[in-house]
């Protein structure tokens, strides 16, 4: 079972099963949240659980108009996962793959899609995966 945590280990999580989706996102919101494009795993809410600590949350409006709630460690500030009210993301959490604890789990997080390629930096190489220009 894959596990993940923040930098200070105060908040930990795990999930079961395979991700619904594995994608890199280049949108402005993800860039600001992660200091670059972010690798994300879409995990069914019923397969995800916080095993230690209690993350804080913050809700904002994504540039596509959806509400995005970020969940982060109250001690070290590391963003662990997000939730969105967009139909495609309901009943799921968007886990930041970089918070996975084990290298082998991170390796399995290889993206199958890129989101917001219209905002991908010219110096960021495109992946040979499904490309989505933006959320419409």
From TrEMBL:
GO terms for molecular function: carbon-sulfur lyase activity; metal ion binding. It comes from the Eukaryota. Gene3D superfamilies: glutathione-dependent formaldehyde- activating enzyme (gfa) (3.90.1590.10). InterPro entries: CENP-V/GFA, Mss4-like_sf. PROSITE patterns: CENP_V_GFA. Keywords: Lyase, Metal-binding, Zinc. Residues 2-107 form the CENP-V/GFA domain. Signal peptide: none annotated. It holds the Pfam family GFA. Belongs to the Gfa family. This is DUF636 domain protein.
């Amino acid at each position: 079972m894959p596990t993940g945590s923040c930098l200070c280990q105060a908040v930990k999580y795990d999930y079961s099963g395979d991700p619904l989706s594995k994608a890199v996102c280049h949108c402005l919101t993800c860039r600001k949240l992660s200091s670059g494009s972010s690798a994300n795993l879409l995990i069914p809410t019923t397969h995800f659980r916080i095993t230690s600590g209690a993350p804080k949350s913050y809700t904002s409006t994504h540039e596509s108009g959806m509400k995005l709630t970020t969940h982060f460690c109250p001690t070290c500030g590391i963003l662990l996962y997000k939730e969105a009210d967009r139909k495609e993301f309901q009943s799921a959490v968007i886990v930041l793959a970089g918070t996975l604890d084990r290298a082998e789990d991170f390796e399995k997080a290889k993206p199958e899609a890129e989101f917001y390629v219209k905002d991908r930096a010219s110096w960021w190489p495109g992946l040979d995966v499904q490309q989505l220009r933006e959320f419409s």
